[in-house]
C-alpha cells in the first residue's frame, strides 16, 4: 500500500513473496481451510481501505469527474486541460495539484454514467478529503469481490464439481495477489464488473433471462468490455428470445446515459476511444511485433493503422470463439478465449485488464491466466524511470510464458478429448 511503483526492487520482491504465499496456500489442501483462507483473502482487501493507491493514478480522474458532476457540470463535455483556469474548476474544487495527478488531462472521460454516479456520491461524502473519497470509491469494489466469490461458488456447484474442487476454484480467484492489489488496492472497477458478469452467467444457466440480462447490462454499464461476451449468448434456434434478451441488456446499459444526454457526448466519447486505439500503447503483444515491422518498412510508428486493424482481428476472433461449433468449449471458456483474443490484439494491456480472465479460468479447464497473473507484475519495471520506459525483453518474456502455457494446455485438452472418444 505504501510502495511506489518506481521502487522496482522492493515492489517486485513484494510481488514475488505474495505469489509464493499464494502457491503455498493452494498447494496444501486449501479446501480443508477454506473459511480461514477466504477470511484472510478479504482481510487483505480491507487493508488500507482509506489509503490512496500508489501503483495507479486512475483515482484522480474519478475524483475530478465526481467533483465536476457534483457541481452540476457534465464530465463528458469538458476537457480537464480546458477548464483548469476557469470558474468551473474553482467552483468544483478542481485544483492545480489535482490536475497534475491526472494521467490523461487532454482526453474526455471514458468512464460510463453508472460509474459517474458513484464518483459523484463518493466525492460528495468524502468532500475535499482525498483519503475519505478513496474509502467510498473502494467500498463497492470490496462488496463486489464478496459477490464474485459467492457467484463463483454457485457456478462451480452447477458444473457438478465436488466440494473440494469448488472451494479450490473460489480460492484460485480470491487469494490471487494480482486480483487483490489491482482491484481493491488500486481501485479498479473490474471488481464490480466481474461480480455482475458472473451473476448474469449464473442466472443465464438457470434460464432466468430477465435478471440475467439485467446483470449483464450492469456489467457493461460499469465497463464496456462485457459487450464482447454477448455474441456467445445468441440462441440461433430462437432469435426472438435473443432479441428480447439483448433488448434488456441494451436498455439497462443505455438508461444511465439519458441523464447525461447531449449530442456531443457521442462525439467526445468516440474521440477518446479512438485515441485509445490509435495512440496509447503499453504491454502489447501482437501490436508490438507489427509495430516493429511497420516502423522498419515505413520509417514511422503506424499505430494509427495497426490499432484499428487489430481491432477488426479481435472482433473476428471473438465471433469465432463465440459461434464456432467445431471447438468444444463451455460458455465460460468461450468468454475466456474471446477476452484473451481481445487482449492479445490490444495496444494497451494494463495488469488489471487480465483480472476477469482469472475469474473465468476458475470456471474452466484452462489455467493460463494464472501464469499471466504471475508474470504481469514485471511490467511495473517500466515505471522505474521517469518518464516510464518499457523493457521489451520483459514484455517478450511475459507473452512467451503465457502463450507457451496456453498452447500446451490447448494441446493437452485436445489430446485428452481424443483419448476419451477412443475409449
UniProtKB/TrEMBL annotation:
It comes from the Bacteria. Keywords: Membrane, Transmembrane, Transmembrane helix. One of its GO terms (molecular function) is hexosyltransferase activity. The keyword Transmembrane helix applies. The chain crosses the membrane at residues 12-29, 36-55, 135-153, 174-204, 210-230, 242-261, 303-323, 335-354. One of its GO terms (cellular component) is plasma membrane. This is DUF2029 domain-containing protein. It comes from Salmonirosea aquatica. The lineage of its organism: Bacteria, Pseudomonadati, Bacteroidota, Cytophagia, Cytophagales.
Amino acid at each position: 500500500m505504501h510502495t511506489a511503483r518506481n521502487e522496482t526492487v522492493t515492489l517486485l520482491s513484494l510481488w514475488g513473496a505474495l505469489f509464493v504465499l499464494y502457491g503455498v496456500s493452494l498447494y496444501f489442501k486449501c479446501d480443508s481451510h477454506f473459511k480461514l483462507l477466504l477470511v484472510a483473502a478479504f482481510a487483505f482487501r480491507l487493508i488500507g481501505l482509506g489509503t490512496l493507491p500508489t501503483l495507479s493514478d486512475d483515482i484522480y480522474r474519478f475524483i475530478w469527474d465526481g467533483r465536476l458532476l457534483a457541481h452540476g457540470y457534465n464530465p463528458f463535455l469538458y476537457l480537464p486541460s480546458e477548464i483548469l483556469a476557469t470558474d468551473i474548476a474553482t467552483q468544483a474544487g478542481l485544483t492545480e495539484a489535482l490536475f497534475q495527478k491526472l494521467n490523461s488531462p487532454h482526453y474526455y472521460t471514458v468512464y460510463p454514467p453508472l460509474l459517474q454516479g458513484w464518483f459523484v456520491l463518493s466525492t460528495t461524502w468524502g468532500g475535499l478529503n482525498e483519503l475519505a473519497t478513496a474509502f467510498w470509491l473502494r467500498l463497492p469494489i470490496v462488496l463486489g469481490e464478496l459477490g464474485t466469490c459467492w457467484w463463483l461458488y454457485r457456478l462451480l456447484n452447477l458444473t457438478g464439481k465436488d466440494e473440494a474442487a469448488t472451494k479450490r476454484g473460489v480460492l484460485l480467484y480470491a487469494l490471487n495477489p494480482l486480483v487483490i492489489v489491482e482491484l481493491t488496492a488500486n481501485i479498479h472497477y473490474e471488481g464490480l464488473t466481474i461480480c455482475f458478469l458472473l451473476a448474469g452467467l449464473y442466472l443465464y444457466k438457470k434460464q432466468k433471462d430477465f435478471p440475467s440480462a439485467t446483470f449483464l447490462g450492469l456489467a457493461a454499464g460499469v465497463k464496456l468490455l462485457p459487450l464482447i461476451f454477448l455474441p456467445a449468448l445468441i440462441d440461433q434456434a430462437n432469435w426472438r428470445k435473443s432479441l428480447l434478451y439483448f433488448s434488456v441488456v441494451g436498455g439497462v446499459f443505455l438508461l444511465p446515459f439519458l441523464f447525461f444526454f447531449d449530442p456531443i457526448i457521442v462525439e467526445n466519447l468516440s474521440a477518446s476511444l479512438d485515441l485509445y486505439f490509435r495512440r496509447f500503447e503499453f504491454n502489447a503483444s501482437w501490436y508490438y511485433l507489427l509495430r516493429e515491422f511497420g516502423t522498419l518498412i515505413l520509417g514511422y510508428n503506424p499505430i494509427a493503422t495497426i490499432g484499428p486493424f487489430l481491432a477488426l482481428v479481435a472482433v473476428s476472433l471473438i465471433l469465432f470463439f463465440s459461434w464456432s461449433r467445431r471447438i468444444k468449449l463451455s460458455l465460460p471458456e468461450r468468454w475466456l478465449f474471446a477476452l484473451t483474443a481481445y487482449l492479445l490484439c490490444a495496444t494497451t494491456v494494463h495488469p488489471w485488464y487480465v483480472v476477469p480472465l482469472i475469474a473465468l479460468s476458475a470456471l474452466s479447464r484452462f489455467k493460463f491466466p494464472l501464469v499471466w497473473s504471475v508474470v504481469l507484475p514485471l511490467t511495473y519495471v517500466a515505471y522505474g524511470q521517469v518518464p516510464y520506459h518499457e523493457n521489451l525483453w520483459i514484455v517478450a518474456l511475459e507473452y512467451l510464458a503465457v502463450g507457451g502455457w496456453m498452447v500446451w494446455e490447448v494441446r493437452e485438452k485436445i489430446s485428452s478429448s481424443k483419448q476419451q472418444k477412443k475409449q
